[in-house]
Amino acid sequence: MNRLQWLLLTPGLWSVLVLFSSFFGAKAQGQIPNVTPAENFEAVTSQVNYYLPPTTAYTLGAGDRVQVDIIGVAEYSGEYQVLIEGNLNLPVVGIVNVQGLTVAEADQRITNLYTRYLRRPQVTVNLLTPRPLAIAIAGEVNHPGSYKIDLAENTGATLPKVTDIIELAGGITRSADVRTVQIRRGRQVYSIDLWQLFASGDLQQNVTLRDGDSIYIPTGSNIDPFETRQLAA
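Below the sequence we write its predicted structure tokens.
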């Protein structure tokens, strides 16, 4: 068994197999709801961060449903919908913006607000129903577009990774430059190297995505024939 075969059989590299099994135009399996044409997402050649984005916890946004419990104060506790602009409307403290916060960060913000009215409030926030996530992919994939990922429909589902979205988009094309894949997150653009994921099993390159992220897979100017053969194998 050569080194490449060993890597492909290594536990934890299933996502690599998924990505490259669809390399030359295999169709994504299953139905994909609400696919729309990709935005005009051109490659960014300046102000690119050549390091990986931090490990991503789920961040709250409009459409999430959460349980807020104030220990010992049942009348302040209950289920709440995160409204437009990411606001919760809570008893006594009123409007609380939780847009872009993790559950732990929202917990701390709400606790701080209730300290004005309660002595040492104990607050817990739990995500009950996550909102659908929208992630776009453009460039050298077979079906570019904006994909809706409904975590609520799949019990135990986790946040999607880059290879999950590439699979939904039908795989990459023969012209793809997988060494300089770009992820746009807000005003930040990150560059990742998916060849390292395939060749050396670097799972850090398979970044966990957030709602609103965009992936751009550029066209390669100098495609390495060796890499092409390995990806096609």
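Residues 1-40 have pLDDT under 50 and may be disordered.
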